[in-house]
Amino acid sequence: MEKIKKIEKSKINKIYNQPEKSGLAYKLYGKSENINDYSEREINEMILGIYRDKKYLLVDGDYFVNLEEVVKSECSLQEVSYYKKPTLETFKDNSCNQIGNIRTFYVKDYYIITQEPIAGISKHRITKYLSRIGFLNTGRGKYNGLFSIANDYQTMQGGKYPKDLYYPIKRYINGLFFDDDYKISDFDVITSLIITANS
Q1: Is beta strand 187-190 parallel, antiparallel or unpaired with respect to 70-82?
Q2: CA atoms within a 13 Å half-sphere pointing along the CA-CB vector of 160
Q3: Where would you tag: which of 133, 153, 166, 194 has the fewest CB atoms within 10 A of its CB?
Q4: What residues does 110 pair with on adjacent strands?
Q5: Residue 78 is inside which H or E element, if any?
């Protein structure tokens, strides 16, 4: 089971006691119009914008997207930190950007993309969602304004992009909503960096 942030029990109890003041969209996107039909785990998920039964996600612009309509996902990678600091030589031949030399990725945003526009938009930001559930960590210092993802796998997926960058889509979209890690497998990393496999 994917680890998502746990909401305080007092907040969940308040929702059971006063569902009309909860602000949750369970009557529209949930499995029932009665709040008592939901477990604490389900209430926790809805607070975070997750409506698994009908496959709806509250995205960053404060509107809902049906994940059945998503055709691809995207990540904008801005910076990386290294184990071995680049030299003029390794920068020139790009060998500093071999996957095994990268310590941490610093991303700006994650998106899911729908075939048909929703509220006039086809590209839906989910960065706040990934931060809200506790996956993305805020970058510090010179990485302020970005989010950090550790390079744990140190491998390229299909030779295309670092495996760790696909992980949030794999687990917190595909795994969480569809029990299929590769349901939405069309994934792009938008970056000026050229990251290569280890030689």
Answers
A1: parallel
A2: 11
A3: 194
A4: 75
A5: strand 70-82
